[in-house]
Design goal:
With 211 residues, the chain is an alpha+beta fold. It has 7 helices and 9 strands. It folds into 2 domains: 1-30; 32-204, Immunoglobulin-like (Sandwich). 38% of the residues lie in helices and 27% in strands.
């Protein structure tokens, strides 16, 4: 009888610890209440949304842009209804690839460029053809982007942001895959084939903002 009581006591203690950990975890889950705070969350390596690698003198950072974030940002800037804007973004998966020099001194667009014609061709490729050098690979599927372009920095940044969008909502694209990869086959900066690996749970766990 005594042994049974001790066993029940230990079991209740373990359940109490598990419940406490669950409550702490739930309370610590952060819900962003403005776009700047949401961007900071995406930048945090612990979020699983951003992946970075350095190849020789070039730094590459691939960042997932959740539909919730894109809708939140646009709705706030235009004073529009969040849910209506979200309907526009939730049918695609958007990523931003930041490419810059490791040391940050030189404009990435000038790396190994061979004159003005070469520079002009580089700009055209990044603006109109970059989607041909990026793909998303799941367990059993390869998906090509429907959109790929370069963000205009107006000469104010030494790095460049390349925006790519894959068709389909995240849950449908990633169904059946615990992990997936974004592949960037670099045609310009000499970094080769770059693979950025993501966990599906991180992507599908993107928070809904406080609106």
């Amino acid at each position: 009888m005594r042994n049974g009581s001790i066993h029940r006591g230990k079991l209740l203690g373990e359940l109490s610890i598990m419940l406490s950990l669950f409550i702490i975890s739930a309370c610590s889950e952060h819900i962003p209440d403005d776009p700047v705070e949401y961007q900071a969350l995406l930048d945090d390596p612990e979020s699983g949304m951003s992946k970075e690698k350095v190849v020789e003198d070039v730094r590459l950072q691939m960042q997932y842009m959740p539909p919730q974030f894109l809708a939140f940002k646009e709705a706030e800037s235009r004073d529009e209804d969040y849910d209506k804007v979200l309907e526009h973004y939730q049918h695609g998966m958007s990523f931003v690839l930041q490419v810059d020099m490791k040391e940050g001194g030189q404009d990435i667009m000038g790396k190994d460029v061979q004159g003005y014609d070469d520079y002009r061709e580089r700009v055209a490729l990044l603006n109109f053809d970059i989607k041909n050098y990026v793909r998303l690979e799941t367990t059993d599927t390869v998906i090509e982007p429907v959109l790929g372009t370069m963000e205009n920095t107006y000469g104010l940044a030494r790095g460049r942001k390349l925006i790519v969008v894959f068709p389909g909502d995240p849950e449908s694209i990633l169904r059946g895959s615990d992990r997936f990869d974004i592949i960037f086959d670099d045609p310009l900066f000499g970094t080769g084939i770059n693979r950025f690996s993501y966990r599906t749970s991180d992507i599908l766990g993107a928070p809904t903002p406080q609106t």
